[in-house]
Design a protein that fits this description.
globular
């Protein structure tokens, strides 16, 4: 996990800033120490000119994840990279651990080595999937646009909305 706190939406009540939900209060507890002084930086709403549309809807989607799965995605980057894997945009390494018990131990170490990797156990085998880079250089334009649409479908399914609704909501937040 990153050493830096992800964005934590807060509400100003006239006297103090407070996280907008229990989910974000837990994140604040994880990253901040009571009594410490922190410099607050206001993140202005996105505009189409200053931020990539993908990252606008991704952050909106991450902030609206259902409480029962939100803990699985500590940041919008974790959500994007897991969606890339779920959509089939990953590199895979197969490790023969020799036994299922050993495979369980190997799989437990994977997040320590790469916080974005997904370990899948199949008998004595561990399949380690890491997300592909979405950079235009790494993917090329065609695959980049295909992957962008694919992760939008994956995340829309997680939120029980359509990809069009994700686009629309990001557009209204821009």
């Amino acid at each position: 996990m990153s050493d830096h706190a992800p964005p934590i939406p807060c509400n100003w009540d006239g006297e103090a800033f407070a996280p907008v939900s229990q989910r974000f209060a837990k994140l604040a507890d994880k990253f901040f120490i009571i009594g410490e002084i922190y410099a607050m930086v206001v993140e202005q709403p996105r505009s189409g000119k200053s931020h990539n549309h993908q990252f606008a809807w991704l952050q909106d989607a991450w902030m609206n994840l259902p409480e029962d799965i939100a803990h699985l995605y500590p940041s919008d980057e974790h959500l994007r990279k897991r969606a890339l894997i779920e959509a089939g945009y990953y590199h895979e390494l197969a490790v023969d651990a020799g036994s299922r018990a050993a495979a369980l131990r190997v799989a437990a170490a994977v997040p320590v080595l790469n916080e974005f990797a997904l370990a899948i156990i199949e008998g004595p085998m561990v399949l380690v999937r890491t997300p592909k880079s979405q950079s235009m250089r790494a993917m090329g334009a065609k695959q980049f646009y295909e992957s962008k649409a694919a992760i939008m479908r994956v995340i829309a399914d997680m939120l029980s909305v359509t990809p069009a609704e994700l686009k629309k909501n990001a557009g209204s937040a821009a």
